[in-house]
């Protein structure tokens, strides 16, 4: 398949990111690597969407801190960015709503054909105030040598910045568009939910997810699952009629090696911080650790 005939994918990860860990970034990298190996997809971008403060999870620090930590964690990435739309809403948003928001935004600014989308959305697009500081998405170092897919992501990011919600400003980040003129409407684009096997397993808990939301998430969008702790994803999927129904829309990242990042979690990171455990450097990037210490986060937190 040529690049133009492959499906271009944006990976979207929702969660607390309390705090964001090396494991979260590893999940993006492994998913992109695997999707490229299939020969059917080109991953052009990744989006991290931290949950709203009203989610109510014990020990959840302010979105202001979580957004900053996420920005610091991806500052060296040329394809993953942080989106605060979820945090800036009046209240908590469902995963389904977040996916629909980004789908509507992508359709509006790119004209791309978003495949496998059957359900219309009423999610509003938030307008950006005039004279607002230019949105910050990523570090542009070495972008001149990025492949066409990354340049496409640059074009999309630039367009999104003109109409989507205001993003936190971090002075050392700048954004530059290096994508040459092209007809974006000729590209097939999909937004896939990126998650660990723990989220997949939560789909099987009665009453936790609305069936209608699961139909949209798995049926209309599709998900990419990175297994954790040797989880049996096949068994998990067989426990849910909806997961079985849309099995073809679920991509499980297969990796023969047991990478240590697969067991890293925010919970372990918080515990390490509370106990002064030096292993925290294995869980969190140094800029994130520095920010946590400077802001005195999690040190006396519970959960």
TrEMBL record:
<keyword id="KW-0963">Cytoplasm</keyword>
<dbReference type="GO" id="GO:0000309">
    <property type="term" value="F:nicotinamide-nucleotide adenylyltransferase activity"/>
</dbReference>
<dbReference type="GO" id="GO:0005524">
    <property type="term" value="F:ATP binding"/>
</dbReference>
<comment type="similarity">
    <text>Belongs to the eukaryotic NMN adenylyltransferase family.</text>
</comment>
<comment type="pathway">
    <text>Cofactor biosynthesis; NAD(+) biosynthesis; NAD(+) from nicotinamide D-ribonucleotide: step 1/1.</text>
</comment>
<keyword id="KW-0808">Transferase</keyword>
<comment type="pathway">
    <text>Cofactor biosynthesis; NAD(+) biosynthesis; deamido-NAD(+) from nicotinate D-ribonucleotide: step 1/1.</text>
</comment>
<dbReference type="InterPro" id="IPR004821">
    <property type="entry name" value="Cyt_trans-like"/>
</dbReference>
<dbReference type="GO" id="GO:0000139">
    <property type="term" value="C:Golgi membrane"/>
</dbReference>
<dbReference type="GO" id="GO:0030659">
    <property type="term" value="C:cytoplasmic vesicle membrane"/>
</dbReference>
<dbReference type="InterPro" id="IPR051182">
    <property type="entry name" value="Euk_NMN_adenylyltrnsfrase"/>
</dbReference>
<dbReference type="InterPro" id="IPR045094">
    <property type="entry name" value="NMNAT_euk"/>
</dbReference>
<protein>
    <recommendedName>
        <fullName>Nicotinamide-nucleotide adenylyltransferase</fullName>
        <ecNumber>2.7.7.1</ecNumber>
        <ecNumber>2.7.7.18</ecNumber>
    </recommendedName>
</protein>
<keyword id="KW-0662">Pyridine nucleotide biosynthesis</keyword>
<comment type="subunit">
    <text>Monomer.</text>
</comment>
<feature type="domain" description="Cytidyltransferase-like">
    <location>
        <begin position="14"/>
        <end position="106"/>
    </location>
</feature>
<keyword id="KW-0547">Nucleotide-binding</keyword>
<dbReference type="Pfam" id="PF01467">
    <property type="entry name" value="CTP_transf_like"/>
</dbReference>
<keyword id="KW-0067">ATP-binding</keyword>
<keyword id="KW-0966">Cell projection</keyword>
<keyword id="KW-0968">Cytoplasmic vesicle</keyword>
<dbReference type="GO" id="GO:0030424">
    <property type="term" value="C:axon"/>
</dbReference>
<keyword id="KW-0449">Lipoprotein</keyword>
<dbReference type="InterPro" id="IPR005248">
    <property type="entry name" value="NadD/NMNAT"/>
</dbReference>
<keyword id="KW-0520">NAD</keyword>
<keyword id="KW-0548">Nucleotidyltransferase</keyword>
<keyword id="KW-0472">Membrane</keyword>
<dbReference type="InterPro" id="IPR014729">
    <property type="entry name" value="Rossmann-like_a/b/a_fold"/>
</dbReference>
<keyword id="KW-0333">Golgi apparatus</keyword>
<dbReference type="GO" id="GO:0004515">
    <property type="term" value="F:nicotinate-nucleotide adenylyltransferase activity"/>
</dbReference>
<dbReference type="GO" id="GO:0009435">
    <property type="term" value="P:NAD+ biosynthetic process"/>
</dbReference>
């Amino acid at each position: 398949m040529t690049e133009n005939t492959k499906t271009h994918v944006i990976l979207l990860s929702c969660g607390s990111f309390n705090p964001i860990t090396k494991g979260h970034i590893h999940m993006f990298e492994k998913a992109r690597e695997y999707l490229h190996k299939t020969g059917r997809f080109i991953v052009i971008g990744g989006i991290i969407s931290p949950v709203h403060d009203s989610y109510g999870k014990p020990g959840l620090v302010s979105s202001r801190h979580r957004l900053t930590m996420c920005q610091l964690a991806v500052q060296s990435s040329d394809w993953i960015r942080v989106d605060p739309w979820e945090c800036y809403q009046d209240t908590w948003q469902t995963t389904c709503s977040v996916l629909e928001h980004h789908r509507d935004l992508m359709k509006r600014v790119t004209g791309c054909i978003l495949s496998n989308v059957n359900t219309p959305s009423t999610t509003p697009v938030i307008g950006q105030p005039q004279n607002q500081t230019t949105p910050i998405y990523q570090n542009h170092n070495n972008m001149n040598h990025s492949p066409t897919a990354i340049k496409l992501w640059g074009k999309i990011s630039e367009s999104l910045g003109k109409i989507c919600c205001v993003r936190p400003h971090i002075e050392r980040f700048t954004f530059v568009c290096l994508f040459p003129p092209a007809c974006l409407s000729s590209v097939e684009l999909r937004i896939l939910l990126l998650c660990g096997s723990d989220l997949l397993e939560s789909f099987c808990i009665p009453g936790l997810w609305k069936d209608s939301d699961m139909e949209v998430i798995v049926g209309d969008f599709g998900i990419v699952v990175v297994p954790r702790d040797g989880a049996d994803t096949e068994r998990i999927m067989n426990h849910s009629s909806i997961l079985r129904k849309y099995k073809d829309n679920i991509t499980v990242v297969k990796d023969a090696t047991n990478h240590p990042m697969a067991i890293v979690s925010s919970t372990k990171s918080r515990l390490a911080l509370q106990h002064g455990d030096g292993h925290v450097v294995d869980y969190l990037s140094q800029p994130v650790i520095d920010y946590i210490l400077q802001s005195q986060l999690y040190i006396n937190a519970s959960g």
